[in-house]
Design brief:
The complex is a heterodimer of chains A (375) and B (165).
Chain A (H helix, E strand, L loop, with lengths): L3 H13 L10 H8 L2 E3 L10 H8 L3 E2 L25 E5 L8 E5 L5 E5 L6 E8 L5 E8 L8 E8 L5 E12 L3 E6 L5 E6 L7 E7 L2 E7 L5 E6 L5 E6 L8 E6 L5 E2 H4 E6 L5 E7 L5 E8 L10 E10 L2 E11 L3 E5 L2 E6 L3 E5 L6 E4 L8 E3 L1
Parallel strand pairs in A: 1-27, 13-17
Antiparallel strand pairs in A: 2-26, 3-4, 3-27, 4-5, 6-7, 7-8, 8-9, 10-11, 11-12, 12-13, 14-15, 15-16, 16-18, 19-20, 20-21, 21-22, 23-24, 24-25, 25-26
Chain B lengths: L8 H20 L2 H17 L10 H14 L5 H4 L8 H4 L1 H7 L1 H11 L3 H12 L4 H8 L3 H22 L1
Helix pairs in contact in B: 1-2, 1-3, 2-3, 3-9, 7-10, 8-10, 9-10
The chains are: A mainly beta (375), B mainly alpha (165).
């Protein structure tokens, strides 16, 4: 008769046998997948109809209504955000590889410039676009070291042709912590960030405005991600992780409030379904529309059994005021690209989603496997 | 004269990543989280590579890092930003359950319900087949605590399995 110990060994072997050597990603490949980002500050830099620009000028777009198990909700009377997209994407490749930033024209899909990191030993890792569409706050951090590493901030300004006109230290050139999830105000004068625990378990949500930093504490085990700063920098939306007993939430923090608890300084505008995992959120610069996504099903990036849910809402001071659409589609995270919703399925596809109808268009781009896409 | 070299971080990854991911899977119950935890363990090693004085301790360091990383996966958004596994995710994993077979479901469910330290000790003892001294070093507890924790865990499992049957 087998002992309990033997049964336990066999059970462990059976469970762990699902992990096979040939399926493991490379040492650096996995880091790239993990820290991928896509974010856009959601301002329309060009009044031109960039939807047309993307569909025609891109030359890489395949208009395609995705097959979606869930039919998009009927459009409401809510006015659509102008369907514009900024002129340039900033691509960050695997930081470990010390590769430069790549500037890509959204109109042609071609690379217009690359930008080397100015400080030796550092790597690019995050970008916060501004409303202009040609100015970006870009962040670099030392490759070696840890979460206590400094973050070096620069303002990258592009010419109309997508060539760097300048790369200068930002208003606050160094933050003495590794900050992440950057989001900029319309003019690029205010920057929001999260600071992952360096010493101690708690996370900080912060803004830098007028050269001064202010932070709010997100107590362990909560943590914030997907920051969306309003055009003027007075509001900061973020997705807050789920904890035992309740699902993840979207909160809006008043950046004029006193430093202290992020929970006390913010209000809940949305609660994700309890069964939802991997919450992602993006709020428009005027804070009247919000797009959320989450996954359900078994987590498996190899087998792709997850179901990606995407929903758009009209929001106000009291939270959700109306539903724009709700659907399922391929994807992993949501952000905004001008007036349109950007859904990224890393390594697979990039989609632009109509902010009112939820209709998705797949973008044929060479950069779906990038580490970070900032548009 | 040919210089001798120590194995590089990539060599260590090739040699130990599979076993560590499998170990992390038992602790986290989630495949993606397990890979991320192991990735962070290697990156942590990479950062302190110049400080490694005893290469023979590297694997122990990695195992400790995997245990710590699995514990803190909720608070390190860089580790598991896109993954929010439930505490009992291991027994909720459809793929794992199917492959484990019907007979083992109850046992895995019972393991998943154990306190964290008991699950860690069981995985270190019955998956990695480590001795009490090694387990004690990894978990930073006494050898006696390892023995008592393992004993309590097995007792709880046996009780649970009796109730199931």
């Amino acid at each position: 008769m087998r002992s309990l110990e033997d049964e336990l060994r066999e059970a462990y072997r059976a469970v762990t046998g699902t992990v096979r050597e040939q399926d493991l990603p490379g040492l650096y490949e996995q880091r790239a997948r993990r820290r991928r980002r896509s974010r856009f500050s959601a301002f329309a830099p060009l009044a031109a109809a960039a939807a047309v620009m993307v569909a025609v000028g891109f030359g890489l777009v395949m208009p395609e209504l995705l097959s979606a198990p869930g039919r998009p909700a009927a459009p409401t009377a809510i006015p659509a955000t102008p369907r514009t997209t900024p002129p340039f994407m900033i691509i960050v490749n695997t930081p470990n590889a010390r590769r430069p930033l790549v500037v890509v024209s959204a109109a042609t899909g071609r690379t217009t410039a690359t930008v080397a990191v100015p400080r030796k030993g550092t790597v690019w890792f995050d970008v916060a676009p501004t409303a202009s569409g040609t100015r970006f706050i870009v962040a670099a951090t030392p490759l070696r070291g840890g979460l206590c590493n400094p973050t070096y901030l620069y303002m990258l300004t592009l010419s109309a042709s997508g060539v760097p006109a300048s790369l200068r230290p930002w208003t606050v050139p160094v933050v003495h912590a590794e900050i992440d999830s950057l989001s900029a105000s319309a003019d690029g004068g205010t920057l929001a960030f999260v600071q992952t625990a360096c010493r101690g378990p708690d996370q900080q949500i912060g803004i830098i405005r007028g050269g001064r930093m202010k932070t709010w504490r997100e107590p362990y085990p909560l943590f914030a991600d997907d920051l969306s700063l309003s055009a003027g920098g007075s509001k900061l939306g973020y997705a807050e992780s789920a904890v035992a007993g309740r699902g993840a939430r979207v909160r809006v923090l008043d950046t004029g409030s006193a430093p202290g608890s992020a929970t006390a300084a913010s209000t809940i505008v949305y609660t994700y379904p309890a069964a939802g995992r991997a919450p992602s959120a993006a709020i428009g610069p005027d804070f009247t529309t919000m797009y959320v996504s989450w996954l359900t099903g078994y987590v498996s990036w190899l087998t792709g059994r997850d179901t990606f849910h995407l929903a758009g809402y009209r929001i106000g001071a009291d939270g959700v005021q109306g539903t724009l659409f709700s659907r399922t589609m391929p994807g992993e995270m949501v952000s905004l690209a001008g007036g349109q919703v950007l859904v990224w399925d890393p390594g697979v596809s990039l989609y632009l989603v109509d902010p009112v109808t939820g209709k998705a268009t797949r973008i044929r781009t060479a950069w779906t496997n990038a580490w970070g896409i900032f548009w | 004269m040919r210089a001798t070299t120590q194995p590089g971080i990539e060599d260590l990854y090739r040699e130990h990543a599979l076993g560590l991911v499998r170990f992390a899977l038992l602790l986290t119950g989630d495949r993606v989280a397990a890979e991320d935890v192991v990735q962070d363990a290697f990156l942590g090693l990479h950062r302190h590579w110049d400080e490694v004085k005893d290469p023979g301790r590297v694997l122990a360091y990695l195992r400790t890092a995997v245990v710590n990383g699995s514990r803190s996966r909720y608070r390190r958004h860089l580790v598991a930003r896109r993954v929010r596994p439930e505490p009992l995710a291991m027994v909720q994993s459809a793929e794992a359950l199917v492959l484990a077979g019907e007979d083992r479901r109850a046992l895995l469910a019972a393991v998943g319900a154990l306190p964290r330290r008991q699950r860690e000790v069981l995985a270190l003892k019955y998956f990695l087949d480590l001795g009490e001294q090694e387990i004690a070093a990894i978990l930073c507890i006494s050898r006696g605590a390892v023995a008592s924790t393992a004993s309590r865990a097995l007792t709880a499992l046996a009780r649970q399995m009796r109730e199931e049957s």
